[in-house]
Specification:
The protein is built from eight helices and no strands. It is an all-alpha fold.
Length: 180
């Protein structure tokens, strides 16, 4: 009998975190793997955003490495400047999407979180458009922030990509009151 007890496999410990850790992390008890699925979906979304940010940063490095002219001397509507503005707008949107994932993903249902993966990716890509719009506002002097150099344009594009509502408010200000 003692020999059988030695050959028996060791008792398995539960993979679920202790109750106090779950409470501190805001996790509910695991129900058929939902917590694992939620954390996996969140991890996948963050990795997608990180990979996209890395690709954009590589594009920016390539833009600056392939020319001897400093950023300030790039033409205002040249392809390098527009790609830079587009890239900084996308980086702002990626940063905003990553920040919002933390709070929304823990409360979302699984099916909503699965659809959020596509929304997160499209939000990051489409975030470049407000950056481009803000650049157009800056170049047309609708948005007057002094000299419109490229470094200022890149910063404005990042802010616009981070907060597309800011660009909408500027556009609504110039569009006037809505007709009812």
């Amino acid at each position: 009998m003692a020999e059988e007890e030695l050959d028996a496999p060791p008792a398995r410990r539960s993979a679920e975190p202790p109750r106090t850790a779950r409470r501190l992390l805001g996790l509910r008890p695991r129900r058929h793997g939902r917590v694992d699925l939620r954390s996996r979906l969140l991890r996948d979304q963050l990795w997608t955003l990180a990979l996209l940010a890395l690709l954009i940063l590589l594009l920016l490095v390539a833009l600056t490495a392939t020319t001897r002219a400093p950023v300030q001397e790039w033409p205002a509507w040249g392809y390098r400047t527009l790609l830079g503005v587009f890239s900084f707008g996308a980086l702002g949107a990626i940063f905003s999407a990553a920040r919002s994932l933390k709070s929304s993903s823990l409360r979302a249902r699984i099916h909503a979180q699965v659809s959020d993966e596509r929304v997160t990716l499209s939000r990051a890509v489409l975030g470049a458009l407000p950056g481009l719009a803000a650049y157009a506002f800056l170049q047309s002097k609708v948005l007057n922030l002094g000299d419109a150099d490229n470094s200022k344009a890149f910063a404005i594009a990042f802010i616009a990509g981070f907060s597309e509502r800011l660009v909408l408010k500027v556009a609504e200000t110039f569009a006037g009151p809505k007709a009812k």
